[in-house]
Amino acid sequence: MSQLAELETTDLMPDDDRAALAPEQSGIGEVSQTRLMIRRFRKSKLAVISGIILIIMYLGAVFAPFLSPNDPAQVDANYKFSKPSHLTLNGGPGICQVKQVIDPVTISSHYVTDCNNAIPLRFFGRGFEYKLFGLIPTDRHLVTVDKGKLLLFGADSQGRDIASRMVYGSRVSMTIGVLGVIIATILGSVIGTVSGYVRGPTDTVIQRVIEIIMSIPQLPLWATMAAVMPPNMSVTGRYFLMTIILSLVTWTGLARQVRGKVMSYANADYVNAAKSAGSSGSRIVLTHLVPNAASHIVAVSMLAVPTAILAETALSFLGIGMLDPAISWGVLLQDASKIDVLQQYPWVLIPALAVILCVTCFQLLGDGVRDAVDPYS
Fold first, then answer.
1. 182/140 same-domain check
2. pLDDT digits (tens, 9 = 90+) for 67-102
3. Taking CA atoms, which of 24, 127, 267, 301 is between 20 and 30 Å from 225?
């Protein structure tokens, strides 16, 4: 009854008062597409948790020197394949002392742990010098020890700290995929939009080029690239070259998907209205077609990042991607390529856990974004 009375009261109101009330009533029940996308994304708990984990991992990459207890490039034969440090709470948080013993018969080394005289952990202690953000010189680290080495995940074949190298390796492995996908997204979006909108001979030529690129086996392509690279090429140069090659071989799939989206939009009423109003082709593409396909582009790009990370890791593991002295997760896993080493020192496989965690989080986040960008489904 109250709703009926309210409606009758509104009908009896003067036109000016009714017009003043109309905007307020018209906003009831209206929700923007952006808010719908955010609401739907929040409903995916796995996607939200994955996003938080990825933010933490990228922050770890930014503060890698501060989080690393040891210099990742420091070679120490006294800790060759040293097992992970044994943590103890005897007399406060600390690690057990480790002593290297050489077997006189097999000439192999093994390590003896002594927890009676534990080495205390120093939080925000001093260690190797570095420049925070590349600008501020400091030698403070999150956790250090006064003597010996804090090896949370053990050491590799040259006695280098695997934990510190994992944190530093995230800088390469987690950014090379993102940069490669960004370049591939730009190429795929522009070329796919042009192909779907212009059509005709231009579309035919673009599609034939895409088919040629997609038919090239990627592994022989990387092997050829590794063969033609100069052996003294800098780490930075190899990093950017790998990024460019990754983007050049991954944009084709997105271009074809964007082409299909644009072709479905090309005959829409708003596009025909823009043509009738005298809008140029570039304006129609940039103002109407690309924004309407943006949600699909974002979802596809997000799911392409883990593929790029796996590609870099696999190629570096095979020795045709990033090479030592560069630090990446694929380079760290090269020690795990030998079965005898893996059987005796299984901790060299720990960097694979970082790859699995990062790729899984990106896939779950991509699934959440893909569902969120279509809130009306």
1. no
2. 998 888 888 888 888 888 888 877 778 888 777 777
3. 301
- Token representation of residue 337: 């390529």
Last residue of a domain, one of 104, 130, 160: 160
Q: Is residue 219 in some structural domain? A: yes
Residue 226's alpha-carbon distances to 40, 206, 217, 218, 308, in angstroms, are: 44, 28, 15, 12, 18
CA–CA gap between residue 192 and residue 200 (Å, rounded)? 14
Choose the final residue of a domain: 112, 136, 160: 160
Spatial CA neighbour of 324 closest among 152, 169, 202, 211: 169
Cβ-contact 258, 188 below 8 angstroms: yes
According to DSSP, the residues that pair with 121 across neighbouring strands are 145
The tally of domains found in the chain comes to: 2
CATH number at residue 307: 1.10.3720.10
Asked, for residue 44, whether it belongs to a domain, the answer is no
Q: Amino acid identity, residue 332?
A: L
With CA atoms as reference, report the closest residue to 195 among 283, 296, 275, 285: 285
Nearest residue to 310 (alpha-carbon basis) of 259, 364, 358: 358
Structure tokens at 357: 């965690």
Boundaries of domain holding 153: 76-160
> Is residue 36 in a domain?
no
Please state, in angstroms and rounded to a whole number, the distance separating the CA atoms of residues 266 and 63. Answer: 47
| CA angle, 87 then 155 then 75, to 5° | 125
